[in-house]
Records
---
Amino acid sequence: MTVNAVLTAMGTRDLRANLRAVIERVERGEPIVCLKDGQPLAVMIAHEEAERWRKVEDSLATLHALNVFPEAVNDPSELADLDALLAPDYATIRRLTSEPRAILSPLRTVGASEGRAAFATLIEEVAQGRVRTITARGHLAVAIIPASEYDRLRALSRVVSWFRGAGLDLATATEQQIVDFVRTRREQTGGADQRAAG
């Protein structure tokens, strides 16, 4: 996932002047942070990467329905025993579910030429939480997300990696696969606790 790749920083003027070349770099998996006065406003990631994160958010919603809140754990290793994992308190659940998820915003596209012409306005809109997708060569190419959303996804990537290592890819799993995974993990760890006690 490109959210774990090394970021390249560019000022808004350079990005605007070289937008087509930047789009190609981002599509190859190089996230680029847009700076204004040295401060990160937005991050450009491949559209496919944004779509993976939308699917991860759907998978997290399914886990929430099963009373599993991976975002609330201090360390992903706490997820090893889902049977013993305590649901967070109501205030934490409320905070997690009300946290903005810009990656889930409606798809709004802008052509590369149009985006270049109004780049400063485009970046300001994204910085305010409105994800934009640049189209190039007739396809959805690059998603521009707020820098805060990029930070949130980077933090969440540890949880996604833990699940992938445990055998469940949150970016591709169906609801039933998630339910089966949680049920099996709970049975395995619950059974291990009973054997240890007996």
---
Amino acid sequence: MTCAEPFVDIHCHLIPGIDDGSQSWEQSRAMAEMARADGVGTIVATPHQLGNYSHNHGRDVRNNTAELQRQLDQHAIDLQVLPGADVRIEDSMIERLRSGEVLTLADQGRHVLLELPHELYFPLEPVLQQLHRADMVGILSHPERNQGLLKQPRLIPQLIAAGCLMQVTCGSLMGTFGSPSQKMAEHLLEQGWVHFLASDAHGPNARRPLMKRAWERVAKRVGTDMADRLCCQNPARVVAGQDVAPKNHRKKTALLMSGWFRRQQAA
């Protein structure tokens, strides 16, 4: 099985030296070469913003992204790189998004990649409502890796109903982040509660910018149409600033919890 379209990666820490991702221009170019060889055609560079990375200003992210694109072109690496951010949720987030200090994905002013603390969950409905009033949409990064959501998986369909889209990390489907995250990622996928797969890559050696194996895993479990939607079509709509349907219609009984979800709740 092969994908007929280039992959679009909307979560990748490709900008060097400003967060816990790439640490040099050489590493960034190596990551870009690796991604292109794997079938990725476009990457949204998403350095952390807010939280511990409040020093990362949108202006600098844009400038660094443009410099990276220049270097890729100079080295004949056929990859499009666009500015974005992995945004830690804070009280001032909406105001900073409006001003452009904090970036939306592909700098389109539409989709915001939201990052929760890994160790806990707090209600996102107020944030989603604020984003909606600003004509923006929240995309929750790696819900399958959040400890709070692992303990309360019933919250996922409620968040989707509130307008939140879900981005699962490619490595989670491969077991990179442990069995609980893998099982939850698989279940979200089978229920139609995943809207995007993304690499969340941080370097050329560990947590690499690869998507093909995850596409293959999705294609095997739920079909090539869904794999293409999560790895190519939906993220391409984000890059274009277009709407993404909140429901994948994988199952008509999507709001019914499986036995696995019930066991997680009882644990």
---
Amino acid sequence: MHRQRLLTAAILSPLIFIVLWWGGSGLFDMVLLVVTAFCLYEYFTICFSGFLVIQGFGVMLGLFPLSSVLLWKDPEFMVPAVYVAFLGTTLLFLVSYTRWSNITWRLAAFFMGIAYVGVCAAHLGLLRYLPMGKEWVLFLLVTVSCGDAGAYYVGKGIGRHKLCPNVSKGKTVEGAAGGLILNAMAAFSLWFVLFREIDPRVLVPLALVTGAVGQVGDLLESMVKRSAGIKDSGSILPGHGGILDRADAVLLASPFLYWILYLCNIEGILIG
């Protein structure tokens, strides 16, 4: 398992970097669309196992927010896209009302997939369109990945106190602290390589908070899987599970980082 985890990371990391750094916005958008579709499929497979039509509509409606961003490259168009997705969700469950024993819970679980995966992935697209967008997407991916690695290895090595045992038995307070330490180290390394014009006293705290939000995203997906009684969202990535298992932290952290940078850009600070 450990060897598979390292091998998968060693293969995926250079590919992701190539797509981001040299692939251009078109290739990045296409890859983001495909990865988001997989994440949506895994989410709706977890929450609506056996309901293939519902899963298909979930993927389709969940891609609305991201599609609006890829088409117009503006966050204001995401609002009507989310409304259309919610309207579609409402009509879907009105038509299938008699199928469900708890219609309100099912509708909420369905729309959560659109919000958690679709809307958050759309912000990753918006992040790419900011000034220094490639650099900030790399900052997000490296920060969250290092935090995940730190939490995993520190937790395995010295973790004693459970972080949220009712949701995830494997995550520990020591692991979470190790993840934050790696977040800070990653931010300082990226400052030295890419962000020399930004004060590290700003960049490092930004990485710490982004990493903390990413850990919440990890716990959120664990809560979804725990409620369904499964360990992984899929098996497509050896040693890691499904694509959603790798993207969960990045998804929730993307809107946080985007809006911080967007607001700072309006004020003419941080990203020039």
